[in-house]
Amino acid sequence: MIIANQKPLGEIMDMLEGVRRVLVLGCRGCVAVCSAGGDKEVKILASAIRLGKGRKGEEIEVVEETFVRQCDPEYLEPLQEMGKDFDLVLSMACGVGVNFIADRVPGVKVKPALNTTFFGANLSSGEWKEMCAGCGACVLHLTGGLCPVARCAKSLSNGPCGGSQGGRCEIDPEVPCIWHEIYEKLKGFNEEASLETIMPIRDWRPSGHGGPRKRIREDLLP
Amino acid sequence: MISGSNLESILTSGQFAVTGELGPPKSGNRDIVRKKARILKGYVDAVNITDCQTAIVRMSSLTAGLLALSEGVEPVMQMTCRDRNRIGMQADILGAHALGIKNLLCLTGDHQKFGNHPQAKGVFDMDSIQLLQMVKAMRDERRFQCGEEIKGGEPRLFLGAAANPFADPFEYRPIRLKKKVDAGANFVQTQIIYNVEKFKEFMKRCVDLGITERCYILAGVTPPKSLGMARYMKNFVPGLDVTDEVIGRLKDAKDVREEGINIAVDIINEVREIPGVAGVHVMAIEWEEAVPEIVKRANLLPRPEAKIEPVLMGAQSIDEAVEQARKEAEERLQGEISRYKEEVEASKRQAEKEKEESAREINALKREMASKEDELSEKERRIQELLDALRAEKAKIVELESKGVVSTVSTVAGEVSEETKVLEEDIVSRKQLDFALRSMEAGLEALKKVLGLEDEAFEALKRFIEAEFVLKGEGPAVPTGPVTPPTEKRPPAPPEEVAQPVEAAGEEPEVHKRAKEVVNLVAKGNLLLHQGKAAEALTEFKKALEIDPEDEKAKAGLEEAQKAISAKETEEQKEEPRAEETKEGIPPTPEGLTDEEWQRKWVIRLIATGNCALYEKDQDKAISCFEQALRLDPENEKAKRGLEAAKKGEFPTYESPREEVVEEAPKKEEAEERPVAEAAPPEEKVEEVKEAAPPQKEEVKEAKPKEEAGPAPAPKAAAAIEVSGEFEFKKEETSLLDRIGSIPQDLFMEKATGSIREVVIGDGEKAITVGGASALPFHLFEGEMPHAPKIAYDVLDSKPEEMPEPLLKYYEECLDDPVKWAKKCETEFNAQAICLSLVSTDPNGLDRSSSEAAKLAKEVIDAVECPVILWGCGNAEKDTETLREITAMVTDKKVCIGPLTDANYRNLGATAMAMGLPVVASTPIDVNLAKQLNILLENLGLGLDHILMDPSIGAVGYGLEYTYSVMERIRLAALMQQDEKLQAPFICNVGREVWKAKEVKLPTDEMLGDQEVRSILLEAITAASLLFAGGELVIMRHPRAVALTNALIQGLMG
Amino acid sequence: MAKIIGFCCNYTAQVPVDVLEKEGVIGGGVELRRLPCTGRLEVPMLLDAFGEGADAVFVAGCKIDTCHNKTGSLRASKRVRYAKGLIEELGIDPELLEMFFADRGSTGDVVEAIKEMEKRTEKGA
To answer: Would you list the DSSP string of B472-507?
Structure first.
């Protein structure tokens, strides 16, 4: 899922300069699952905004709402009308939601309450880890299912660099060396010989360096 | 030859190569590069020019490489993938070739995290292996990475790579090196080697892989500069293996640096012997001076002559040209100076001559004066004579007056008086000497014109003469300074400025005195400056400039003094922390970090250690850590806070309570008891099972002799649970609302927004209604639960192959007669409902025909008054058939049919609808499947008030948790999220699941305890759990388990 | 007079604030709010308490190993720590929010907590 993290409150309070009526809009998608922008977080942020504004002696009306998703047109529909009542919509969705509102809901000023960070998995309650970089050219079939693009500090293609020690990455002993893990994994399948061939220089276009990306499935188009 | 580089020719000729390393400066100062290059020149065959090593911004490797080249040192340009993409890298590669660089070392590069710009975006468009591949293709195939042809002038480069034999996984390292060679590496330099044994093993594998036949391997060697550096490399640099032996040697050494060099030499001698090693790469990190010594002691001198030809005129040539120009200018200057000196000398001689002449003149004058005096006395004498004569004349005239000739005499007397006046004047004007000098000056002026002397020379001459005069009189000596042009200490002047110093001599005579003062002050200033008293010198120069703001020397002096002062300041700043470092025992700054960065990191480390100590309650350690940190960084807030906390003994609160609890273990019990005495009735008591009636004796009667003889159940189990007799749960003494006191209701109440449908099973008096709840199970304080959960007894329509002992005890006599069985349940056990399990119809079992089974079922239905749930065998087709048969025979609405699955819901649903019967909708443990089936049935026309959901359950130990979780989610969706399609009551077939478990079949033993107690509890606990998850109708088998469950329900329903 | 709002669980909330006030053990302006268990505490409750004008807010839960609901007070302490970060970002001294662990039914511990918070508000003022 998409992992996000709430922006520093100071930054959010700056966005609310002069705002009298704000809609704190959560999303029940990824950000709810990663505890960044679901119902609970909407409540917390709304309370914090009220407190922050109150201390400055400024009045603000904070309305809390959470949509099923902010990245599908039908779920955004209610905002077309509702949004008009607010000076600002503070979206607690990932960047997709903020963009989508800005694109689809005219006349509504939307700002982000979160920093969208990565695609990750939930390791345990309160802990998420990056697993995919969305590079558009998956090599996981060659690397035992472990991604060197997302999980190697240098996105190496051809094995661990000289900083790999005891299975740890040199940038941080907390970070495992994914190439070490790839090697061990493939060795477990007796496939380590595949790491003797040189992986060619990548084409980074599908990763977004070729411009904004779009996906189309003809058969589903209306 | 690939590139024709010096390194390549040495390696291909089979000679043992030596390469060095040169880190470009963190500035644009080319002299640093040139200086380092000069140190290494002649001692190494080529020098690696690092590319922003450890991701710290430095002069680019291409530029520094060219500077080295201009010094006659062959560079090995390093290139990393961190900072440029393939476009930038290819561009630089073409440029490097164009400017005469012939060796290229391809690296991935250190991660930017380690450098001074950790915020930077790391490019890593490719890795080192791919870079090698790309450059090789540019060189050998003359094409860019994209495939486009390079027309003319492909980059001819001897390609290098790096290898770390000590990184992990060790066995993969030679393979990865082979990949580099495959990609195009012509030579390889290894990571620093201290562990020679491990390196030997690595080399052996490389030889086995054939790498050494295709590529030259240079072993990396670094002399450890200090013990601290060695320890740092051992502990903090990933992929560096510093042996204890090396540490030990340094520790025992008297002269650590000397020992460091010896270690390097020893390692070189050892690796030389290893097959496949073609050379060494000596890296003396910020210790370039060590390289010549090491190379010398390792007997690697002299190095073969290298022919290095810079393509462009390098910095050296420029410097040479400048030097040449400067020399010429100096010569010209010197020439002019000596010329002026000669002229001065000549003027001096001339002046001497003049002096002699004037002395002569003076003498002449004196003589003249003497003669004039003589003349005067002569004249006086003559006057006397005349007077005498006059007197005589007078007397004569007196005589003649009388004779008449007076007029003539008076005329004569007038003449005489005039002559006397002139003489008097001559005598008075002794001051005429002065006049004489002035006239002499005029004479000199004339002389100057005659001699063609320039102004300054003349001036000099004049001053000289003046000086002579003054010297003869009193007064201080006039320094002759301005006469000689100042040459010493002047910054080298460009040729066109040569005339300048001479101009300084051209002072106007009027300002002479002031100039003198200035000169004095400047001289004093220079002296002070020389003594190192820059500040005092500065004031002298300033004074001088106050007098003459244009004085060049004073200006230059002032500048120098200021420079000296600022240099001193920076030196002091530098020295201060260094002094502290040793005091605080900071390890030496590692390579690639500035002292400042290292200190910062060290402070962070100290604070972290301090915080750890604080957690461990090691107050002294924490204080010392924080104090150390503060000494290094007195402004650090964290350290300050830490120190404060440590001094106060404030240890973090999060950990401490836990420890306290451990310490106060004996108190804990008291604490738990207190609230009981004080006020709140403990909720635990609700769960306590109280035996209401007959004690053990009854059980003994009922129990079989076998059980009595068998090993006694574990005493604990027996004491805890008594399964015989009636059960009663102690009800709440005070309601939750009372107990909760002043807690606002909205804090614990979560009112449901939806409710569960009511489903009626059976008709008439004995009909039961389930569902209807508008709160979570038994949350009576939050909402309604109009109907207590119901329990149906399970009756099988054929004799089971085996039945566990505890059940057999109750049903043995009616096992083959379902009618009798059902009746027994109704009359003896007060069954609220019967579930007739049509197990006999199973095609895989007895496969009794539908009609036969139906007939039997009809008998059972007729025999009892309570509602009957008809539960098919689970085969969708057969169940459809059987249940249809039965419903056709049954006229009243006493029955409920099931299970309906997605395979047979249409047919059975239609039947139920036609008859108005409730159904059991069965799905395999899944929220969405349950919902879907409900929707399908609703679409068919069967309302939710006719549906009992069977979520498929598991007994304790057989998936109960999963069942529980799914049921809970369904119920929450139904009540809180208004998911209407899930608002049907649950039916749970507990008996069937429990009584096939292994645990109910195993006989009594010491480990598992009494079989009957065990099995009853298994069934009761499963049922109870499912009731808490929302179960409204449970099907059970053992009457004691039913009694236990019922007691729980009664207790909870109040 | 400083306004202090405290959240106490069922077991620590037996403290009769008005009596203590009358006896002069603690100053006025203290309000205790009961929770079934401090595990029920949510971050917005703490923020809203400040929003209502509290100068200081504290939570008194059971000692960690004695929580009736096992981990209730532990969870509460984590939430308090989270809320401390939020109020600090809003310019409120995080010291004005604190988690205390009290023995079950112990008035003394809660009084100590109140006194500590009173001290902190004075320091701040």
So the answer is: HSSSPPPP-GGGSPP-TTPPPPPGGGTHHHHHHH--
ipTM (interface pTM): 0.92
Last-in-domain residue among A118, A144, A177: A118
Contact at CB, B667 and C103, closer than 8 angstroms: yes
pLDDT of the residue at B467:
54
Contact yes or no for A10 and C89 at CB 8 A: yes
Extract the tokens encoding B986.
């649950």
Give the chain A residue nearest C51 (alpha carbons): A51
Q: Is residue A79 part of a domain?
A: yes
Instruction: Please tell me the distance in Å from B179's CA to the nearest CA on chain A.
Output: 6
- Residue B915's pLDDT band (cuts 50, 70, 90): confident
* A155, A163, A168: residue with CB nearest B124: A155
User: What values do phi and psi take at B521, rounded to 5?
Assistant: -65, -45
Distance to chain C for A64, nearest Cα, Å: 13
CA pair distance B972, B975, nearest whole angstrom: 5
Q: Please give the average per-residue pLDDT across B96-120, as a whole number.
A: 94
Contact between chains at B145 and A201 (C-beta distance less than 8 A):
yes
**Residue A54: closest C-alpha in chain C:** C51
Structural domain of A83: 2-118
Beta bridge partners of A207: none
Scored b (16 or more CB within 10 A) or e, A1-10 reads bbbbbbbebe
Mutate to test the interface with C, among B743, B745, B749, B779 (most CBs of C within 10 A): B743
What tokens were used for B406?
């007076």
Provide, as residue numbers in chain B, all residues whose Cβ is less than 8 Å from the Cβ of C64: 657-658, 661
pLDDT at B480: 43
Q: Determine, yes or no, domain membership for A215.
A: no
Q: What is the mean pLDDT of chain A?
A: 94
For helices B905-915 and B927-940, angle between their N-to-C axes, nearest 10 degrees: 50
pLDDT, tens digit, 9 for 90 and up, residues A111-157:
999 999 999 999 999 999 999 999 999 999 999 999 999 999 999 99
Architecture of domain B6-312: Alpha-Beta Barrel (3.20)
CATH classification (class only), B481-581: mainly alpha
B736-743+757-1053 has which fold?
TIM Barrel (3.20.20)
pTM: 0.54
Could B654 and C77 be called an inter-chain contact, meaning their C-beta atoms sit closer than 8 Å?
Answer: yes
CA distance C82 to chain B (A): 13
Alpha helix positions (H), B890-1010: 905-915, 927-940, 960-975, 990-994, 998-1001
Radius of gyration for chain A, computed over Cα atoms and rounded to the nearest angstrom: 22
Residue B238, CB-side half-sphere exposure with 13 Å CA sphere: 22
By percentage, how much of chain B surpasses pLDDT 70? 77
Q: Which of A95-99, B233-237, B472-476, B755-759 has the lowest mean pLDDT?
A: B472-476
CB-count burial class (<10 Å; 0-12, 13-18, 19+) for B921: buried
Are C77 and B748 inside 8 Å of each other by CB?
Answer: no
Contact A112, A7 (CB under 8 A): yes
Domain residue extents for chain B: 6-312, 333-472, 481-581, 586-662, 736-743+757-1053
Q: What is the mean pLDDT of chain B?
A: 81
CB-CB under 8 Å, C34 with B743:
yes
Is residue A91 domain-shared with residue A149, that is, in the same domain? Answer: no
Give chain B positions within 8 Å (CB) of A167. 168
Inter-chain touch A158–B176, beta carbons under 8 Å:
yes
If one counts every other C-beta atom within 10 angstroms of the C-beta of residue B34, the result is 20
Give me the number of domains chain A comprises: 2
Question: Which domains, from first to last, does chain C contain?
Answer: 4-124 (3.40.50)
Structure tokens at A110: 């939307």
Q: Would A107 be classed as within a structural domain? A: yes
More confidently predicted of A206 and B607: A206
Residues of chain C with pLDDT under 50: none
Q: Which two tokens stand for residue B270?
A: 């050892």
